[in-house]
Amino acid sequence: MATDFSPEILDQLLAGGSLKPEDLAGEDGLFRRLKKALLERALGAELTHHLGYEKGDPAGRGSGNSRNGTSSKALLTDDGEIEIEVPRDRAGTFEPVIVAKGQTRFDGFDEKIISLYGRGMTVREIQGHLAELYGTEVSPDLISKVTDAILDEVREWQSRPLEAIYPVVFFDALRVKIRDEGMVKNKAVYVVLGITASGEKDVLGLWIEQTEGAKFWLKVMNDLRNRGVADILIAVVDGLKGFPEAINSVFPKAMVQTCIVHLIRNSLSFVSWKDRKAILPSIKAIYHAENADAALLRLEDFEAEWGKRYPAIGAAWRRAWEHVIPFFAFAPEIRKMIYTTNAVEALNRSLRKIIKTRGSFPNDEAAMKLLYLAIRNAGIHWRRPVAWTAAMGQFAIQFGERFAGSAD
Predict the structure, then answer these.
(1) What ranges do the domains of the chain cover?
(2) Disordered: where is this region (predicted)?
């Protein structure tokens, strides 16, 4: 359909001299009046098509049906509330399409509500925003109904088929307060972010659980497998006990890498504030080592210098050592990309900004709905990692046919 208007039509619309912003977008501005006129014109054309003759055409006489005036309808649009006149037929068989019977909201209005909700606004805040911006009174029940409609999309997204192979998958969690059985509980929302063979980032799913036990992680792994994931080359995890075993029970060939950032944070939790600046270079020296053997020597140096004062740090690194050293098989620029869950933590930071204004969610579905919308909004800002081209070459050497199959 053509979208250009002739200069003559535009001149007619803008007749009357210079226009102020409110003349175009105000409550009685040109945009709203034009939308009203176009809708009514389109409804009239629909009725003409339904009856089979033009208004006033003698061909309509004796046809068995005719025009029967109009009825007023208040329609919520993304420009605010518009009062339109809907034509009727005498037989009552006219079913308009552009504004269906019973429809009270026009295309764009629901998307406006969903967009505001996805940016963290509460139902009451959305209600006030629409009233202030459009002069439209919208009930909280309507806003809830519109946002609840997104749950079908969430379920479809959560069960969609996935890639067969992901070179890198990051597993991380954030805490959300959710009401459950009459009590507000601190639940974990696990975010799984995969990087495809082409370097594209994709959130594979969200899982909500009060306790992060082995059974829960096994459920997540089986869910990924049931949705088509056959292999994960590198799984980057936050170091929780039992997580590597859950991954390898479903994806036995996966290289499990502990997130070094989490390990550092855990280490610093043992350290007094006055010692943190002094101790950090010794910790960094461990994972900045040129290879795994050198890293072990750096760990021994750290324990010799700080072990008596902070014995728990060295012990924590040694317990996780099997899953600390895998990234040493890669060049430094690749290590930086895979030894930390920074990629998913950046996403989590944007999610925390969205949920920070909420005291708690009434249920798991409400939390899932908002987090999904926030992820959908954030996705457009993700870019392919700068080092991905180099990473592809190293993955091809390290993993052979397993990566070659994913790159085809």
Answers:
(1) 23-55+64-150, 163-407
(2) 52-74
